[in-house]
Amino acid sequence: MKSTLEQIEDIKNNGYFLDFSTVFNHAFENYKKIALYAGLILLVFSILAFFLGGGLLVSLYGVQHFNEEFLKNLQNEQTSTSVLAIYSLVIAFTAALFSPFTAGFLKMAYCADRDEEFKFSTVFSYYTSRHFTQLFIATLLISLLSGLISVLFNMAGIILIDTLMALAITIFTALTIPLIIFGDLNAIDAIKSSIIIVSKQPFTIILLLFVAGVGSAIGLIGCCIGVVFTIPITYSVNYALYSAILNIEEENSIDSIGSDSE
């Protein structure tokens, strides 16, 4: 079987075929297997994040400042370039720290696709994996690039271009994490390979990611808490997209399932 880089080289030279309905059907069937479990995990950590974030804000500003006037002033306040730069750095490092969490959901999709057992600990498995460093570096680089572009375009007052560039970066690097954990690539190779893959079938991939995004947003209808159970569709689409394009070599792609802690 060809290595991931050899497969990428073939794609670079010859392209590949990608059928929207096949990938989406695969993703949806896999989503049904992980939706409840992944949704419950997301719900628990969303609640924890809410209380931790709220506690941090209260400790910084004091509870007496959280009133309607404070929120209006916060909305109307003009963000300086230095504040935006600091904010971008914080977001970049936060995203990098949570990248193994995202990888864990992709591993859950991998297990579900093969009807293998997955556990609560599966979503945390990459924090102790050999892939942790590459996941962290790749996500940090991507987030820092997005942040830098955001700062530059905000300085120029061109908000629309800033948004479009951020979307383009997100789309063209969408396969970076699966290329690291399933393809065993380093951060730089994974980013470059993701760009190559997406550039060969941009419209089909954009459509798949758009449908996944819409599917995730459906959870906001009625009771917003439902979004935690629809978000996993994005992980399923990402996994199905990767598996439709590249071969997953079990011995190279993921750490042993049996090594997960109980």
Features:
globular; mainly alpha; 262 residues; 12 helices; disordered C terminus
In short:
The chain is mainly α. The chain is built from twelve helices and no strands.
Can you give a write-up of this model?
By secondary structure, the protein is mainly alpha-helical. It has one domain (4-249). The protein has 12 helices and no strands. The protein is globular. Mean pLDDT is 84; it is low at 257-262.
Total count of strands: 0
Q: Identify low-pLDDT runs.
A: 257-262
Kindly report how far apart the N and C termini lie. Answer: 33 Å
Helix content: over 70%
The biggest beta sheet is recorded as:
none
Number of domains: 1
Radius of gyration: 20 Å
Query: What is the succession of H and E elements?
Result: HHHHHHHHHHHH
Proportion in β-strands:
under 5%
- Name the structural class: mainly alpha
Mean pLDDT score = 84
